[in-house]
């Protein structure tokens, strides 16, 4: 999904958030915007640093680490984020559109691209015929080298 498509999703996500009773404050929206734009797993601390780095340029007030934590938690609660526990125990989050999709992960820069789900019917058939297994859910992740890393 492109960055513009993801930003277009922002409004829908904010609506979803307020529908669930979470307040859509300005700092929270700034956190969500930065979160949606980053294409790798980030801990609250890392996202907070990223926000702090851009702050001086647009003159908006500082956003506290607690706000970042809470916003990421809200994103997870409304189903717009997946989490990954890091080696040191900290939780990293990745923005995930609500629609079913898969991930292509770059093993060099850790960028994550969303991949639409395709050709699952073939697997479903194999499972049904050869194993008499009814598929109800699946998970897939692809690993490789992203476009910009391949160019280097
Ligand atoms: Zn995703
Ligand atoms: Zn890469
Ligand atoms: Zn799928």
Order of helix and strand elements from N to C terminus: HHEHHEEEEHEH
Helix-and-strand structural type: alpha+beta
Within CATH, the superfamily of the largest domain carries the name Winged helix-like DNA-binding domain superfamily/Winged helix DNA-binding domain
Q: What is the domain tally?
A: 2
**CATH overall fold name of the largest domain:** Arc Repressor Mutant, subunit A
Mean pLDDT score: 89
The low-confidence runs, each spanning 5 or more residues with pLDDT under 50, are none
What compounds sit in this structure?
A: zinc ion
Side by side, the strands of the main sheet go 1-3-2
Number of DSSP strand runs: 6
| Distance N to C terminus | 23 Å
Radius of gyration: 18 Å
Summed up, the helix count is 6
Helix content: 40-55%
CATH C-level category of the largest domain:
Mainly Alpha
**Oligomer class:** single chain
- Approximately how much beta-strand content do the residues carry? 15-25%
CATH architecture descriptor name of the largest domain: Orthogonal Bundle
Could you explain the architecture of this structure?
The protein is of the alpha+beta class and 152 residues long. The protein has two domains: 93 residues, Arc Repressor Mutant, subunit A (Orthogonal Bundle), CATH 1.10.10.10; 51 residues, Dna Ligase, domain 1 (2-Layer Sandwich). Helix content is 49%, strand content 18%. It has six helices and six strands. Strands 1-3-2 form a three-stranded antiparallel beta sheet. Helix 2 packs across helix 4. The radius of gyration is 18 Å and the shape is globular. The mean pLDDT is 89. Bound molecules: zinc ion (ZN) (3 copies). The site of one zinc ion has 4 residues, from strand 4.
């Amino acid at each position: 999904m492109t960055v513009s498509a993801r930003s277009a999703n922002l409004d829908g996500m904010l609506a979803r958030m307020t529908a669930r009773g979470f307040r859509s404050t300005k700092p929270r929206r700034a956190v969500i915007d930065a979160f949606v734009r980053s294409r790798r797993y980030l801990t609250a601390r890392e996202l907070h640093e990223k926000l702090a780095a851009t702050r001086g340029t647009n003159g908006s007030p500082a956003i506290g680490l607690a706000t970042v934590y809470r916003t990421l938690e809200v994103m997870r609660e409304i189903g717009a984020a997946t989490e990954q526990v890091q080696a040191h125990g900290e939780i990293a989050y990745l923005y995930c559109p609500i629609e079913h999709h898969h991930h292509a992960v770059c093993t060099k820069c850790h960028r994550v691209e969303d991949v639409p789900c395709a050709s699952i019917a073939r697997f479903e058939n194999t499972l049904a015929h050869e194993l008499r297994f009814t598929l109800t859910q699946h998970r897939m992740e692809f690993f490789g080298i992203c476009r910009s890393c391949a160019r280097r």
